[in-house]
């Protein structure tokens, strides 16, 4: 199968005829494995060799697996060099440290605890150029349809672009559309907050429940959690509550609505198509909660939508004038800067706070687009992640904010990163010959230290992102303590990164007179990579910076790996199968019958569903009615508990 015969190739650009072997050499395909794969497969961005008929035909613009390039192979060879080095020595090199610390607009990012040398960085930057990273970034910002499987642009960056910037998608400048929606959000949120927009009974709406799932939930929740204890944001939120309802589990409904009064509650239903199964079931549930107390006409005053499907919005009972738009070039996990996030956040904190958040995100967007790669923080974050995953073989990453207000950062980035880059095929549909994507998890410090740090210190190697802030949102300094509470937290921030990098050797343990039988248990190998990110404070602006930083990092990884980071076909199959189970479940419970082999489920699933049905009552509806738990409806027969909020 190897193209050892000298087939003839013709370059479409030069029209020069060269032999197959020379063509491969000119494309830097060196390994036997890569040459074998080259037959009938893409070998560079502008060429494809098809030798099925003994003649190599060159085609244009066919993607290439980055692993067939000489730059990838150079990094594979370089791994053996780096494996001989240790971080305890590398971080003593002051010149190296200086070169691996980058700053932008108040952010301080230290890459010096990554298992990388100056040569590593040079090779990674060359890999970026080989992958056409710069052109792909520009294509994204220009609104080209880089989401190939859905034929869409990817323009979450346009959501925070300034009003005077022109961003053209399919011949239309979308910036005015974006700012029209932002202006609508500002006007509506101010009406609600100042009492101009009242509920059905004439009371102000001081509580907001945002109903949505996935990106419609995780991103806004991350920002809300980050801002709750920021003094400036908290001032704007006085007397108000913002809650989120995502899970279709009725327990989530009970918790979201517990203690709220329908008379003072505004519900924001977030669903682009207004057909998302979990969201719409939750929306119907909350609508019933409102109409049971206030009547059907109350929906128009107590429910608004973030959707593009105005027909279904109207059919639901929401006035289409109270529907806030977003666009198909905004992916769900990238939508927090659209009405999806800005509407509930503006209702809680005021639109001025949201504008600061958007400006912070735009600051990093501009840095990402315009800064040379050697100083480009998102690019370096992405390239070093590729180094850790695809070359050093570290498939996981821990996100460790030493700031409790960033408690929901890791869950949000889990979706942004894992739904984006959890792929097994290239953008052209061919199976990837290398691993990509990361397993993301995390917990604020110091909680995580008492949870999973044992594993990252002495078990598996897990690259870490440490995130700290200089000024705490809430300062506490007790008399008699040698450091403030925040200083104590940050002492751990600095120490943990060094502990992972340097470890502790047998020699050091023996010097401390540690008994021989304990030395293996108390030894720390070190040489465990991490990145440290230091922010001046955590406010709306820096929260926007962090969001954009991680979004751009994910894009860099996907661009270099050659995958589509902006679709998510992997979530579809389970939804389809759940629909089939739903139909069967309805029949089984209304007819009080168990499943049989004729229902088409495998024996394991059939047996498990039947076990579930054994504990459920038969659904008998002589007359259709709504059934609510005591947690939601307060009546003479049923009182909700007061033990949780």
Give a written overview of the molecule.
- It is a single chain.
- With 645 residues, the protein is an alpha/beta fold.
- It is built from 25 helices and 18 strands.
- The strands form 5 sheets. It has a 6-stranded mixed beta sheet, sandwiched between helices.
- The longest helix has 22 residues, at 540-561.
Count of helix runs = 25
* Relative strand content: 5-15%
Strand order, largest beta sheet? 6-7-18-17-15-16
The computed structural class is: alpha/beta
Distance between the termini: 67 Å
Based on CA atoms alone, the radius of gyration comes out at: 28 Å
Mean pLDDT: 89
Give unreliable regions as ranges: 1-60, 641-645
Helix fraction by DSSP (H/I, runs of at least 4): 40-55%
> What overall form do the CA principal axes indicate?
globular
Topology:
Blueprint: E1 8-10, E2 17-19, H1 20-26, H2 32-38, E3 42-44, E4 47-50, E5 57-58, H3 70-82, H4 87-90, H5 94-99, E6 101-104, E7 107-110, H6 118-130, H7 133-141, E8 168-169, E9 172-173, H8 175-193, E10 207-211, H9 215-227, H10 231-236, E11 241-245, H11 250-257, E12 265-270, H12 277-294, H13 299-302, E13 303-306, H14 310-316, E14 323-324, H15 339-349, H16 351-370, H17 377-391, E15 396-401, H18 409-421, E16 439-442, H19 453-458, E17 464-471, H20 485-502, H21 506-511, H22 519-522, E18 530-537, H23 540-561, H24 572-591, H25 603-614
Parallel strand pairs: 10-11, 10-12, 12-13, 13-14, 15-16, 15-17, 17-18
Antiparallel strand pairs: 1-2, 3-4, 4-5, 6-7, 7-18, 8-9
């Amino acid at each position: 199968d190897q193209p050892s015969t000298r087939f003839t190739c013709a370059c479409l650009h030069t029209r020069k005829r060269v032999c197959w072997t020379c063509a491969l050499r000119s494309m830097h395909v060196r390994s036997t494995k890569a040459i074998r794969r080259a037959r009938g497969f893409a070998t560079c961005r502008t060429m494809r060799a098809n030798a099925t008929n003994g003649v190599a035909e060159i085609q244009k613009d066919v993607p290439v697996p980055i692993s067939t390039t000489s730059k990838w192979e150079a990094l594979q060879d370089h791994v053996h060099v780096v494996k001989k080095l240790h971080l305890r020595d590398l971080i003593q090199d002051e010149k190296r440290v200086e070169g691996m610390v980058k700053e932008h607009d108040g952010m301080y990012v230290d890459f010096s605890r990554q298992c990388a040398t100056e040569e590593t960085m040079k090779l990674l930057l060359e890999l970026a150029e080989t992958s056409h990273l710069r052109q792909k970034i520009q294509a994204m910002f220009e609104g080209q349809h880089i989401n190939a499987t859905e034929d869409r642009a990817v323009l979450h960056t346009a959501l925070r672009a300034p009003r005077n910037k022109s961003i053209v998608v399919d011949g239309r400048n979308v910036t005015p559309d974006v700012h029209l929606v932002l202006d609508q959000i500002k006007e509506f949120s101010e009406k609600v907050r100042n009492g101009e927009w009242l509920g059905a009974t004439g009371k102000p709406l001081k509580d907001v429940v945002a109903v949505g799932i996935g990106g419609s939930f995780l991103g806004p929740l991350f920002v809300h959690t980050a801002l709750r204890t920021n003094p400036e944001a908290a001032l704007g939120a006085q007397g108000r509550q913002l809650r989120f309802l995502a899970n279709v589990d009725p327990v989530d409904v009970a918790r979201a609505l517990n203690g709220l009064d329908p008379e003072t509650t505004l519900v924001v239903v977030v669903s682009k198509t207004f057909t998302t199964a979990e969201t719409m079931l939750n929306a119907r549930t909350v609508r019933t909660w409102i109409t049971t107390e206030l009547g059907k006409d109350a929906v128009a005053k107590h429910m608004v939508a973030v959707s593009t499907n105005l027909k279904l919005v109207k059919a639901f009972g929401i006035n289409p004038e109270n529907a806030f738009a977003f666009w198909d070039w905004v992916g769900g996990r990238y939508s927090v800067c659209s009405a999806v996030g800005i509407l509930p956040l503006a209702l809680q904190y005021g639109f001025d706070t949201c504008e600061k958040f958007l400006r912070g995100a735009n600051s990093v967007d501009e840095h990402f687009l315009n800064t040379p790669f050697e100083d480009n923080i998102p690019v370096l974050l992405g390239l070093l992640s590729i180094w850790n995953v695809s070359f050093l073989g570290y498939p996981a990453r821990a996100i460790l904010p030493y700031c409790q207000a960033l408690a929901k950062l890791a869950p949000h980035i889990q979706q942004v990163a894992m739904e984006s880059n959890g792929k097994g095929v290239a953008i052209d549909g061919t199976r990837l010959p290398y691993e990509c994507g990361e397993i993301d998890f995390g917990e604020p410090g110091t909680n995580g230290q008492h949870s999973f740090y044992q594993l990252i210190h002495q078990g598996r190697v897990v690259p870490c992102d440490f995130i700290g802030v200089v000024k705490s949102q809430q300062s506490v300094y007790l008399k008699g303590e040698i450091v403030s509470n925040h200083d104590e937290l940050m002492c751990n921030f600095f120490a943990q990164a060094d502990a992972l990098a340097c470890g502790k050797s047998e020699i050091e343990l023996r010097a401390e007179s540690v008994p021989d039988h304990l030395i293996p248990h108390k030894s720390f190998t070190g040489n465990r990579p991490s990145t440290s990110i230091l922010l001046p404070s955590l406010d709306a602006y820096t929260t926007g910076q962090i969001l954009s930083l991680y979004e751009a990092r994910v894009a860099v990884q996907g661009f270099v790996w050659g995958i589509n980071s902006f679709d998510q076909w992997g979530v579809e199959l389970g939804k389809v199968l759940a629909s089939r189970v739903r139909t069967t479940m309805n029949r089984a419970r209304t007819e009080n019958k168990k499943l049989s082999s004729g229902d088409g489920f495998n024996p394991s699933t059939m047996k498990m569903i039947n076990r579930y049905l054994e504990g459920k009552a038969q659904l008998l509806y002589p007359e259709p009615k709504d059934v609510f738990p005591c947690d939601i409806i307060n009546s003479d027969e049923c009182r909700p508990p007061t033990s949780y909020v």
